[in-house]
């Protein structure tokens, strides 16, 4: 069997990856919770954000954490515009159409990146990735620790935004009762677009946290998106707490199954959880809505 | 024909239907009335098999069908309409009705012929080849009845087929309902329009807060203080008697 | 079905059958075979997605199973190619029934059904990529051995006609759906499952039969694919590309119509070739166009290309 130290490290690594997963899932679950749609382009949008981080670094030597200041608002704007001007109008209010439109969008984005950057894998050329923090007998990667803390902080911020601001109240009102919200004068299309923008902003933060230790190619986001779907389904569609817990759980599961089964079979663990949760308890562990 | 024996339905803590019983004699038009939220549609759901009762039994022609799936009950001869009418949007009126007709006529030609015949019978004769989505509300209500009727049921459950119609449309559809019964189909109907219940039904059951509070011929039921209270609140019956009102006012409630 | 129902089908097949005898080049024939295989996969998707309204994002699970079974049974068990293809179709059908039983029993529909089918396809892809019997990541290579028993033909036109025959059968099945009790039940379940059940339709059984037929047709496309290209790996067999192609063709052509998938596959693959030609060697450009087409069709022509024709005829009739 494995030494306890390896197991503890695997668990901690899993938690750190899981926090970033949670952030990605947060964007997905927020959009689902309010618009009641599944955004299939979520992964492709993450890839776009990751390329933006990479571009800022490669062209202008912008530190990925600093790049957040520019990329987060940009992705928010892009998300807002996509929902307001493409996904919303094109879908004619049918859920199946949303699924197909966002699928179309993901095909367009992914392949546009492929046409621009080819299938080469790119990483930030920086030694920040190798820095570690010593924690007793354990060595933890600094950028991943930063990622962990920042992901939790952003989750907290988002929660505050939803609970304490007028925008947040409008979003929650629309999520609860679309018609009622419209009747009291809330502009539903605007709130939808803002929510979609917030989902994309979460992706931008995740991209900035991922890039110091990860790489990007046009298919990178696709690898995350099914994981994010699994987390969202596990945590309960639309539940923020569920996304956080689900993300951490999946991070740890992936870390252990990678340790025990090897990387490629390790992925199967996630898909099987996904399928099982869908078949047995589609409302997730925290979900209330049927 | 139909006997419902102390049906109870609980949703988590809430008791939607509580020990409700009723019988529908063959060849009758029986009404089920009650204020909003009384549990009428829930009761219908249990009779037609869409909801599993927490307790109690449903007997159809003497056979216990309590645990049977809706499509099996349809084969036995129980058909129902839905309060919220939703035609099969991609199909024409005749094709919509044919979905019901296919139950007894597996061949397309027979099913379509049956569908056209039933469609004409409920007054949709000149709209059979229209897309179902183009029908007016009144047309959709007729379509809903026609679809159910095309399954050639022995018992037809009508869930508020008159709701949302204007008085002249109601006047037009009443003879259709009566003609269905005269054609040998027993009817149990949920209805809010009292005038219609008074004219159509031989027997009426009143459901209030999940309980069966009264039953009998419509005139008699409408004068029942318990029924008046169910509709108008506690003490209403006493106030009305004091004011010398008659049950007619309730009939218009 | 009567003669009038079958006439357009006969004409379309006759025209397509005549095509390869017009002295087309090898690359054009290749293109046509690929297009027909995709049309076949799309015809399969259309049974469940178009007529049944259950959008699968994982038809690769059936395509890949048909393809792998056809190849593995020949390579590792020495089966005759025809038997292997038949078994591939059978296995694909079983996979369809299994996935359908699990998902429909659990009441999954809409987005949930799309996601669960996608996940199943991904599980198959990972397994095929690691298992020995499927050749792992290296894939499988069928030996080049032209002959009737090996289902390989030195004249590509013969294979083209074979694929066309399968397309013809799938078209016939779709036509039957438009004209039969089963098809009416399937459409009724698509439009309103509750109302259909009240009319005596056994919704679960209808959906299961639909996914079985759908999977069988798409599995046939997979088996034919490997017989033609003689090579298979997990990314080809179970990759998202075929799940996407299988749904694009019917949606662009006309969802829930017999001819939609064929029209859609011809239009899209043709457009893809033109784009590739114009863009030079840049990868992905054809798929950008496909994705944009998908969005445009849903936004502006929900009934697909065939729907445009019907809409124009209706407008003309209204104007006259």
From TrEMBL, chain A:
One of its GO terms (biological process) is amino acid transport. It is found in: Cell membrane. Signal peptide: none annotated. The chain crosses the membrane at residues 12-34, 40-60, 65-86, 98-117, 138-162, 191-211, 223-253, 259-280. Coiled coil: none annotated. Its main location: membrane. GO terms for cellular component: plasma membrane. It is a multi-pass membrane protein. One of its GO terms (molecular function) is transmembrane transporter activity. Keywords: Amino-acid transport, Cell membrane, Membrane, Transmembrane, Transmembrane helix, Transport. InterPro entries: ABC_transp_permease, BCAA_transport_permease. Belongs to the binding-protein-dependent transport system permease family. LivHM subfamily. This is Branched-chain amino acid ABC transporter permease.
Automatic annotation (TrEMBL), chain B:
Signal peptide: none annotated. One of its GO terms (molecular function) is ATP binding. InterPro entries: AAA+_ATPase, ABC_AA/LPS_Transport, ABC_transporter-like_ATP-bd, BCA_ABC_TP_C, P-loop_NTPase. Residues 2-234 form the ABC transporter domain. Transmembrane segments: none annotated. SMART domains: AAA. The keyword Transport applies. GO terms for cellular component: plasma membrane. It holds the Pfam family ABC_tran. GO terms for biological process: D-alanine transmembrane transport; L-alanine transport; L-isoleucine import across plasma membrane; L-valine import across plasma membrane. Keywords: ATP-binding, Nucleotide-binding, Transport. This is Branched-chain amino acid ABC transporter ATP-binding protein. It comes from Methylobacterium variabile.
From TrEMBL, chain C:
GO terms for molecular function: branched-chain amino acid transmembrane transporter activity. Keywords: Cell membrane, Membrane, Transmembrane, Transmembrane helix. InterPro entries: ABC_transp_permease, LivM-like. CDD domains: TM_PBP1_LivM_like. It is found in: Cell membrane. GO terms for cellular component: plasma membrane. It is a multi-pass membrane protein. The chain crosses the membrane at residues 6-24, 31-51, 57-75, 82-104, 158-177, 210-232, 244-267, 287-308. Coiled coil: none annotated. This is ABC transporter permease. It comes from Methylobacterium variabile.
């Amino acid at each position: 069997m494995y030494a306890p130290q390896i197991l503890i490290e695997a668990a901690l690594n899993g938690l750190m990856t899981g926090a970033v997963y949670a952030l990605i899932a947060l964007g997905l679950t927020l959009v689902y919770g309010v618009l009641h749609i599944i955004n299939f382009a979520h992964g492709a949008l993450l890839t776009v954000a990751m390329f933006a981080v990479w571009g800022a670094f490669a062209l202008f030597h912008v530190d990925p954490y600093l790049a957040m200041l520019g990329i987060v608002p940009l992705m928010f704007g892009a998300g807002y515009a996509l929902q307001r001007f493409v996904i919303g109008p094109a879908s004619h209010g049918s859920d199946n159409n949303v699924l197909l439109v966002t699928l179309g969008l993901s095909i367009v984005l992914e392949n546009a990146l492929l046409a621009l950057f080819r299938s080469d894998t790119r990483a930030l050329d920086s030694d920040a990735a190798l820095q570690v923090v010593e924690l007793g007998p354990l060595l933890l990667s600094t950028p991943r620790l930063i990622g962990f803390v920042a992901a939790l902080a952003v989750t907290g911020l988002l929660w505050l935004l939803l609970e304490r601001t007028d925008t947040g109240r409008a979003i929650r009102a629309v999520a609860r009762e679309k018609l009622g919200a419209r009747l009291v004068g809330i502009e539903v299309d605007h709130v939808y677009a803002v929510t979609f923008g917030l989902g994309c902003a979460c992706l931008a933060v995740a991209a900035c946290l991922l890039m110091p230790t990860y790489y990007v190619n046009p298919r990178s986001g696709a690898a995350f998106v099914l994981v994010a779907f699994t987390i969202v389904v596990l945590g309960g569609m639309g539940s923020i707490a569920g996304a956080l817990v689900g993300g951490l759980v999946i991070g740890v599961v992936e870390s252990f199954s990678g340790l025990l089964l090897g990387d490629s079979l390790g992925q199967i663990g996630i898909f099987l959880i996904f399928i099982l949760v869908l078949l047995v308890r589609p409302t997730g562990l925290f979900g209330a809505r049927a | 024909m139909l006997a419902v024996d102390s049906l109870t339905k609980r949703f988590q803590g809430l008791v939607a239907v509580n020990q409700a019983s009723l019988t529908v004699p063959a060849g009758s038009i029986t009404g089920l009335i009650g204020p909003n939220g009384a549990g009428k549609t829930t009761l219908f759901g249990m009779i037609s098999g869409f909801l599993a009762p927490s307790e109690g039994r449903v007997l159809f022609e003497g056979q216990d069908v309590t645990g049977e799936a809706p499509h099996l009950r349809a084969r036995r001869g129980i058909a129902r309409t839905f309060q919220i009418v939703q035609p099969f949007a991609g199909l024409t009126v005749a094709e919509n009705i044919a979905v019901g007709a296919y139950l007894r006529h597996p061949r397309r030609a027979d099913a379509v012929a049956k569908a056209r015949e039933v469609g004409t019978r409920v007054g949709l004769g000149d709209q059979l080849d229209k897309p179902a989505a183009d029908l007016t509300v009144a047309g959709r209500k007729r379509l809903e009845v026609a679809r159910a009727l095309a399954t050639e049921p022995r018992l037809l459950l009508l869930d508020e087929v008159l709701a949302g119609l204007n008085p002249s449309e109601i006047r037009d559809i009443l003879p259709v309902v009566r003609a269905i019964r005269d054609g040998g189909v027993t009817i149990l109907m949920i209805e809010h329009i009292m005038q219609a219940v008074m004219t159509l039904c031989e027997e009426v059951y009143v459901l209030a807060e999940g309980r069966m509070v009264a039953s009998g011929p419509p005139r008699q039921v409408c004068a029942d203080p318990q029924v008046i209270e169910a509709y108008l609140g506690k003490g209403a019956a006493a106030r009305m008697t004091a004011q010398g009102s008659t049950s007619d006012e309730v009939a218009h409630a | 079905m009567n003669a009038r129902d079958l006439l357009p089908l006969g004409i379309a097949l006759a025209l397509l059958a005549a095509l390869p005898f017009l002295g087309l080049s090898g690359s054009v024939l290749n293109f046509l075979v690929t297009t027909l295989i995709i049309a076949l996969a799309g015809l399969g998707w259309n049974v469940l997605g178009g007529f049944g309204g259950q959008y699968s994002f994982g038809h690769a699970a059936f395509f890949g199973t048909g393809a792998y079974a056809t190849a593995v049974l020949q390579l590792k068990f020495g089966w005759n190619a025809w038997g292997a293809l038949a078994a591939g179709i059978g296995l694909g059908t079983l996979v369809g029934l299994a996935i359908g039983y699990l998902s429909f029993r659990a009441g999954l529909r809409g987005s949930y059904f799309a996601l669960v089918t996608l996940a199943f396809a991904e599980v198959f892809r990972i397994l095929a990529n690691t298992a020995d019997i499927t050749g792992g990541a290296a894939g499988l290579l069928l030996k080049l051995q032209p002959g009737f028993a090996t289902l390989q033909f030195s004249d590509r036109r013969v294979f083209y006609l074979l694929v066309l025959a399968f397309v013809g059968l799938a078209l016939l099945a779709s036509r039957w759906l438009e004209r039969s009790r089963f098809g009416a039940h399937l459409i009724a379940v698509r439009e309103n499952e509750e109302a259909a059940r009240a009319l005596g339709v056994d919704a679960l059984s209808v959906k299961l039969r639909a996914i079985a037929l759908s999977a069988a047709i798409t599995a046939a496309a997979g088996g034919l694919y490997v017989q033609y290209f003689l090579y298979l790996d997990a990314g080809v067999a179970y990759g998202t590309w075929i799940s996407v192609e299988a749904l694009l063709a019917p949606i662009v052509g006309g969802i829930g119509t017999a001819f939609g998938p064929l029209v859609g596959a011809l239009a899209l693959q043709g457009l893809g070739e033109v784009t590739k030609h114009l863009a030079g060697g840049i990868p992905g450009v054809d798929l950008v166009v496909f994705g944009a087409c998908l969005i445009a069709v849903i936004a502006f022509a929900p009934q697909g290309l065939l729907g445009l024709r019907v809409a124009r005829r209706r407008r003309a009739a209204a104007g006259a």
